[in-house]
User: Which sequence fits this backbone?
């Protein structure tokens, strides 16, 4: 059986998915759930935001806990066990942002435009909770590209 990049990354995602689920489970109570979401306004020039939404199931109310302005369109939102979230730029992206539970930016990783690497919009935390995996594309000469799966220390994603 031939493994293409989509099957490979799906297998990697399945292997680390258990590490993402505790963050979601910790953010949920029987009455409320905290949900990470991102959107921009209806006009093409409107800014993009990542938001933490609090859903109260009993009152059927949805409140915005905080909104974090983003440099461009996001793709991946990864809730973290401490209530924060990791936001990854849409492909081909040059940034990754970590926010705390209050919506304050704790870290922003920016790939230099001169580098031949781009984020592909997804990140996963390994089962040990210490390693962040980001899916990236390494741009090669003549328009070719190669997928990469860098392993980074979770609290220092720029390393």
Assistant:
């Amino acid at each position: 059986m031939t493994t293409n990049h989509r099957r490979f990354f799906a297998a990697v995602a399945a292997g680390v998915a258990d590490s993402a689920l505790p963050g979601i489970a910790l953010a949920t109570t029987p009455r409320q759930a905290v949900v990470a979401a991102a959107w921009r306004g209806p006009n093409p020039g409107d800014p993009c935001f990542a938001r933490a939404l609090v859903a109260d199931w009993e009152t059927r109310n949805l409140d915005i806990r905080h909104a974090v302005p983003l440099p461009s369109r996001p793709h991946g939102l990864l809730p973290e066990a401490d209530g924060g979230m990791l936001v990854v730029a849409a492909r081909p992206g040059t940034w990754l942002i970590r926010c705390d539970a209050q919506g304050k930016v704790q870290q922003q990783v920016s790939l230099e435009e001169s580098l031949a690497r781009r984020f592909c919009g997804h990140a996963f935390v390994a089962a040990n909770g210490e390693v962040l995996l980001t899916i990236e594309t390494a741009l090669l000469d003549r328009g070719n590209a190669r997928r990469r799966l860098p392993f980074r220390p979770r609290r220092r994603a720029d390393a």
Observations:
- The mean pLDDT is 77.
- The longest strand covers residues 61-70.
